[in-house]
Amino acid sequence: MGKGTNGFSEAGLRRMHEVLAGHVDSGKIPGLVALVSRGEETHVETLGTMRHDGGAPMRRDTIFRMASTTKPVAVAATMVLLDECRLRLDDPIDRWLPELADRRVLKRADGPLDDTVPARRPITVRDLLGSTCGLGLDMTARTSPMMGAFFEQGVYGQEDGWLLPAPEPDEWMRRLGTLPLMYQPGERWLYNVSDDVLGVLVARVTGQPFETFLRERIFSPLGMKDTGFHVPAHKIDRLPPLYAPDPQTGEFLVEDEAEGGHHSKPPAFPSGGGGLDSTVDDYHAYFRMLLNHGMHGTQRILSRPSVELMTTNRLPSEQLAAREAVARNLVHLSYGLGQHGGWGFGMAARTYRGDFAPIGQFGWDGGAGTTTYADPHNQLVGILLTQTGMSTPDSARVIHDFWTTLYQAIDD
């Protein structure tokens, strides 16, 4: 692994191994799989076991619940449709999603649901891609009437420890359409709902199930053979249980079993906001494609401008502070992750340097203990997958230390 102008130092990789192994040896994290790549060099760590009480070891092909790390991948389906002019950025979505036509907007985001004004304009494709459609999970206002309505109407249910749509897509859209917007279209960045609406949009524009289109246009061309919205029976032994440690005692509580759990069968709603299962190698193929401006080998998956739109900041300056405030209050980012300013399409896009990573880094984190970013400046990808939800600081510490040791291992 020696010295080289586009790789990692042996000493740096040793430190990464020792730091990650320390987290597993502490008993706070049952196991993990990490992949780092730079230039032509790829390094993988598999540490610990699938279950907290031992048993099968973690493997390179272990399948993890990607949770919100789904967003940067699922958004690619919409970008394909933009490239092919089957959608345009500023098209109103009313034609395909009539449930969201003629919106009413709350006078105050935390106010009563019947105190509304008309929307000033329709929601556009751009609003959905940039998470500015006016609907979202605002963790800074969890007790607001709107957040209550999401649950009461069954738009979102608490599944796997994070928020996923409950009914099938048409019924989900019908329920969503009974609610007002929280902000005017384009006015403010809000989390998650836009990503789920995009999946319905893709299905309606293409006439195919969302997962089918993703598989044909993104997963299969990239060789992402273990990525989907559930884990089939012949692979279920590669999916560990999801744990939610008790914040007081640290005891490992099973939030979602593998066999018979939420990911053992196709979901009613394939969630572009948080529903994918995948492996380090599948996600590596996808993020390398983004670093290569949309190319996978000799095959073009996305246009270069599509990738640039996704991976660089799209928010105006006056919206950046609101985005950061929401990110700080997300359950899975409440320990200081996700504070990088900007947002592209489906992912964070770093606009300032607050830690080891430079401006331009893009990607996202997930509530089940996952993190994936790429860095064009250093031509690197980092992926860390665990099966411990971020209900305690331990997952966040592992993720922080992973990124620190990845960057200290750069060898030039």
Can you walk me through this structure?
By secondary structure, the chain is α+β, with helices and mostly antiparallel strands. Helices cover 30% and strands 18% of the residues. Strands 3-2-1-18-17-16-15-14 form an 8-stranded antiparallel β-sheet, sandwiched between helices. Strands 4-11 form a two-stranded antiparallel sheet. Strands 5-6 form a two-stranded antiparallel sheet. It is globular. Mean pLDDT is 92; it is low at 1-5.
Helix content: 25-40%
What is the CA-based Rg, rounded? 20 Å
Shape, principal axes of CA atoms: globular
Give the mean pLDDT.
92
Q: Approximately how much beta-strand content do the residues carry? A: 15-25%
Low-confidence stretches: 1-5
**What is the rounded distance between the termini?**
13 Å
Number of helices: 12
**Number of strand elements:** 18
Brief rundown of the structure:
This protein has helices at about 10-25, 70-75, 75-85, 125-130, 145-150, 170-175, 195-205, 210-220, 280-290, 305-310, 315-330, 395-410, and strands at about 30-40, 40-50, 55, 65, 105, 115-120, 155-160, 160-165, 240-245, 255, 275-280, 295, 300, 340-345, 350, 360-365, 370-375, 380-385. It has about 400 residues and is of the alpha+beta class. The strands form 6 sheets. The chain has an 8-stranded antiparallel β-sheet, sandwiched between helices. A two-stranded antiparallel sheet has the order 4-11.
